[in-house]
């Protein structure tokens, strides 16, 4: 939300660039300075943390064998790269996350549409949804492995299990909060149920979809890493578990850092998508 | 000639777990071609229910409604329905909003598109056609909503408190505006309102409903001594106050 407001501000001050009063110029200057200040502090914290980490490890204040250190992380990354497996691990994990994410969102939306379509079905399935929603899906991990076999398919199903029900409930709830009068409007033109869906429900649910996407981005990473913890022979989750087992904390730290970056990139992708959609709507 | 709308012994009972609500009972009246009829009545007396029944959105539990002699069995292209709020979709441009009814009726043709453009031009909204609803004022939005109804070329307009979301000044202007449009396009109109002045200022006849269960308590013929009648000029006539008092007495409001 705050990003959105900042954006609006910048549009309005760009519009007034010609002929601005000194007070306004002063204000703009202060706003810009404030932003730069925040960025500088952010960068400072980041560098200080890395530096402290490195120094403490070098000075043996902390044991680098347990905490690792930035230079070792870089070395590990380089070694993985030289061995030609760095992008293989990243690629596999990202692929699983994206497939799980897309499937979860699409299937969740379809199921939500079905439940909206048939009030009867919705009522019948309600207790099952409640139970499934409450159940920690991770408990199903072993079941999936036995059923599907240890491999990427089981990981994707794990991801799906985590994000699906949340999506269904989120989207269905979005549908149910849409103004009944808007639906009535479509009906006054003789609109069918399908037209209510396409003309009102789906377009009015843009914000809901974006919200569901944002939630699912996070959840699908949880699903993938849990899945990889349980079964995999490749991927970042696998590297983390493997590194932990053989006490190679460098490998664990490296993987966690890469994971953080990958998850952030994907989340920002959704934020970017949202901006595009919002821009087209106003 | 047959009346355009004929409401015959209509009654409506809503069922719920808490019991039965009789919203309407034995309603009878008819509307002639080109006539403007207002319906007033206390809150909750079933005015919206009545319009929904006439439009074919819901079915009465007794009695029948005829449109030009034909029994109402469902929604009809003869009817245009305007709701209290404009309900413009903010993800559609003004033009796309206006086209909604035509899209739903699968009647988007070069000639209907042209008609939409013509209506937008006539009523001063053409230059806003690619804007989004949140860029328009309340009065303009209500006009867009009317055009959205008019492009489907209904013969009868049902207006359910179509102006009550507007502030008073805007409302007076929009009353005039929309009255003018309805007369120019030669439509028959049925307006539900809480506002006695509004009901008299626009109508040829005012139907007064009793409190729930709603029945027709009285029907007033509005004859105003006024050359070029508009809602605003109607309010200035001698007879206006007389009608107001009559209907006010008829409404029998206790506070
Ligand atoms: N779908 C429904 N189910 C049950 N009762 C209903 C339903 N719709 C309306 N009612 C009841 O029927 C009565 C008439 O409702 P209606 O909305 O037609 O009144 P109204 O005259 O339009 O009221 P208002 O002036 O507040 O708009 C009310 O008491 C209302 O509670
Ligand atoms: Mg009502």
Structural commentary:
- The complex is a heterodimer of chains A (282) and B (255).
- Chain A has two domains: 2-62; 80-281, Orthogonal Bundle (MetI-like fold), CATH 1.10.3720.10.
- Helix content of chain A is 85%, strand content 0%.
- Chain A is built from 13 helices and no strands.
- In chain A, α4 (70-82) packs across α13 (249-281).
- The longest helix of chain A has 37 residues, at 22-58.
- Chain B has 255 residues and is α/β, with parallel strands linked by helices.
- Chain B has nine helices and ten strands.
- A six-stranded mixed sheet of chain B has the order 6-7-8-3-9-10, sandwiched between helices. A four-stranded antiparallel sheet of chain B has the order 2-1-4-5, covered by helices on one side.
- In chain B, a hairpin with a 2-residue loop joins β4 (62-67) and β5 (70-71).
- In chain B, α5 (138-150) packs parallel to α6 (168-184) and α7 (196-202) crosses α9.
- Classes of the chains: A mainly alpha (282), B alpha/beta (255).
- At the A-B interface, α9 and α10 of A face β6 and α3 of B.
- The structure holds adenosine-5'-triphosphate and magnesium ion (MG).
- Magnesium ion (MG) binds next to α1 of chain B.
- The site of magnesium ion (MG) has 2 residues of chain B, from α1.
């Amino acid at each position: 939300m705050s990003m959105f407001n900042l954006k609006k501000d910048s549009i309005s001050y760009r519009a007034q660039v010609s002929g601005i009063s000194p007070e306004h110029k002063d204000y703009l200057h202060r706003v810009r300075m404030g932003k730069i200040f925040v960025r500088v502090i952010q960068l400072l914290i980041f560098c200080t943390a890395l530096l402290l980490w490195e120094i403490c490890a070098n000075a043996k204040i902390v044991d680098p064998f347990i905490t690792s250190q930035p230079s070792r992380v870089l070395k590990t990354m380089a070694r993985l790269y030289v061995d030609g497996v760095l992008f293989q691990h990243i690629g596999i994990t990202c692929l699983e996350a994206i497939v799980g994410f897309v499937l979860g969102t699409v299937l969740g939306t379809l199921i939500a549409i079905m439940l909206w379509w048939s009030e009867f079905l919705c009522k019948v399935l309600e207790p099952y949804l409640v139970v499934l929603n409450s159940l920690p899906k991770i408990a199903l991990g072993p079941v999936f492995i036995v059923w599907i076999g240890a491999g990427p398919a089981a990981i994707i199903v794990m991801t799906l299990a985590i994000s699906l029900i949340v999506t269904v409930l989120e989207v269905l709830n979005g549908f149910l909060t849409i103004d009944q009068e808007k639906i009535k409007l479509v009906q006054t033109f003789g609109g069918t149920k399908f037209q209510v869906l396409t003309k009102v429900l789906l377009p009015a649910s843009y914000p809901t979809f974006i919200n569901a996407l944002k939630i699912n981005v996070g959840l699908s990473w949880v699903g993938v890493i849990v899945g990889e913890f349980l079964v995999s022979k490749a991927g970042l989750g696998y590297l983390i578990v493997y590194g932990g087992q053989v006490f190679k904390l460098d490998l664990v730290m490296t993987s966690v850092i890469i994971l953080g970056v990958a998850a952030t990139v994907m989340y920002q992708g959704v934020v970017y998508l949202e901006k595009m959609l919002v821009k087209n709507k106003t | 000639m047959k009346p355009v709308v004929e409401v015959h012994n209509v009654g409506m009972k809503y069922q719920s777990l808490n019991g039965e609500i009789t919203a309407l009972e034995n309603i009878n009246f008819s509307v002639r071609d080109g006539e403007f009829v207002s319906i007033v009545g206390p809150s909750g007396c079933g005015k919206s229910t009545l319009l929904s029944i006439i439009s074919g959105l819901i079915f009465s539990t007794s009695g029948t409604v005829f449109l030009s002699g034909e029994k109402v069995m469902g929604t009809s292209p003869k009817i245009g329905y305007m709701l209290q709020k404009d309900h413009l979709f903010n993800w559609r441009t003004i033009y796309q909003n206006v086209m909604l009814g035509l899209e739903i009726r699968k009647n988007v043709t070069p000639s209907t598109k042209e008609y939409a453009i013509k209506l937008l031009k006539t009523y001063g909204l053409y230059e806003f056609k690619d804007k989004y609803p949140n860029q328009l004022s309340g009065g303009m939005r209500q006009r867009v909503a009317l055009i959205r109804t008019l492009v489907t070329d209904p013969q009868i307009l049902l207006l359910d408190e179509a102006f009550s979301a507007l502030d008073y000044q805007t409302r007076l202007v929009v009353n005039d505006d929309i009255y003018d449009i309805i007369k120019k396009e030669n439509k028959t109109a049925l307006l539900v309102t809480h506002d006695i002045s509004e009901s008299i200022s626009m109508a040829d006849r005012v139907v007064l409903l009793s409190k729930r269960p709603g029945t027709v308590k009285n029907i007033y013929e509005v004859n105003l001594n006024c050359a070029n009648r508009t809602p605003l000029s109607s309010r200035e006539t001698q007879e206006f106050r007389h009608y107001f008092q009559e209907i006010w007495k008829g409404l029998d409001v206790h506070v």
